[in-house]
Amino acid sequence: MIYDSIIDTIGNTPIVRLNKLNAGIAGEVVVKVEYFNPGNSMKDRMAIKMVEDAEKEGILRPGGTIIEGTSGNTGMGLALAAIAKGYKCIFTMADKQSKEKIDILKAVGAEVVVCPTNVSPEDPRSYYSVAKKLNADIPNSFYPNQYDNLSNWKAHYETTGPEIWKDTAGKITHFAAGVGTGGSMSGTAKYLKEQNPNVVSVGIDTYGSVFKKYKETGVFDEDEIYPYLTEGIGEDILPKNVDFSLIDLFVKVTDKDAAVMTRRLAREEGLFVGWSCGSAVHGALEYAKDNLREGDLMVVLLPDHGTRYLGKIYNDDWMRNHGFLEDKSFTTARDIIKGRPRSYELVVVGKEARIKDAISQMNQTSVSQIPVMDDGQVIGSITDSKLLSKIIDNPGLKDASVHEVMEPPMKFVAMDSTLDVLSSMVDKEKAVLVRDEQHQIHIITKHDLLAAITG
What are the pLDDT digits (tens) for 114-125? Predict the structure, then answer.
């Protein structure tokens, strides 16, 4: 068959059995390999859908410019559509994205604007804000906004879901996928559940993202948000394409577990895939160990190709420098926490406690800084040095409530953050917090870092 354009080859990607990584799991685990799309990712599906829907609505006109904030893969899909249809492209990207992603977009003629990662979405420097400003400033431009453009989930409802249903002959019982913009999970799950309401949808999230906590509690907890390295999944916002009613549960995966699993997929299954693919498989297998039964069939969506990550997870030096290789000599937050005695307990203070009682607690436990808690959430912090200066200025404060003088809460960091990352953050923040897989909160101070370095 001869196709008229490269975009006509999008879709109908293969489903492949796992043969080694699923050892010991009842039921069958298979993966849908989306790097067979021409742009090497599943984002091709929604990219062409967003462009063609915009054309139908008159939003995108001949000679126009497509402007989008992307982690790379959506940009590639939009760039292919732009080439086929005669548009220009400008993409904004966070600086945590791999160099390969940036270079690939430039190779297909796109202009790339790199923005800082560790700023809020509302910050004018964020890649969200920069894309919106470019769209406002450039005439005849189209901002697809993959996060809130519902053509995103519709693309997967119309293509990915039907393909999975057809290729499994309707036998699928579980569907697992990473959740970023939410389109692939929500659209695919919607179609599959319409065919069989008993299909279980498992969303894969990352530590540092708000999704899992929000699904379970309905609370958008900013304390869940902290820097992480995994690209393509997790968010510090709630995109309109994430339909939580269609996602039965979330499993969180660390940066390290995702990276290690990605390399295992290449070496043990011959699947040379991207970082979030490792997240999806690791999370899916963790769920499958306890929940899959004989006769069950789980399909895991693998979003992209490994070429985007040659300088990161497929680079031994990069992996070693981030403490992700087992032969590492790099201490992480996880190592610091594991080294503590079992009797260790985080010292906290309630927001309504009196300041003099908080100071007494600090003296008794020999700590100099304490998180302030309210209803199980970290809402602030107090430090002995700041309290001292405030009480010297106003001695009557000792009888006031902690919430009247507390400082902003300490930042949360990932469990696999290495000493270099921790030291840079502790230097700025005085102390940082870590939430482990059991949702227990731990504090890491300068003293902990000095002990780890000298120990």
Answer: 998 877 778 899
Identify the bridge partners of residue 111 per DSSP, sorted by sequence position. Answer: 90
For residue 324, report the phi and psi dihedrals to the nearest 5 degrees.
-100, -5
Longest dimension (CA), the chain: 84
- Alpha carbon distance 78, 47 (integer Å): 5
Nearest to 264 by CA among 194, 221, 324: 324
Cα 242 from chain centroid? 13
Cross-strand bridge partners of residue 445:
431
Percentages of the chain per state (helix, strand, coil), in multiples of 5: 40, 20, 40
Q: Left, alpha or beta for 161 (phi > 0: left; psi -120 to 50: alpha)?
A: alpha
- H-helix or E-strand containing 297? strand 297-302
Residue type, 57: E
The confidence score (pLDDT) of residue 65 equals 97
Report residue 328 as tokens. 């590492």
Give percent of the chain with pLDDT exceeding 90.
60
Element spanning 15, H or E: strand 15-17
The residues annotated as belonging to the active site are 43
pTM: 0.73
Measured in degrees and rounded to the nearest 5, phi and psi for residue 323 equal: 75, 25
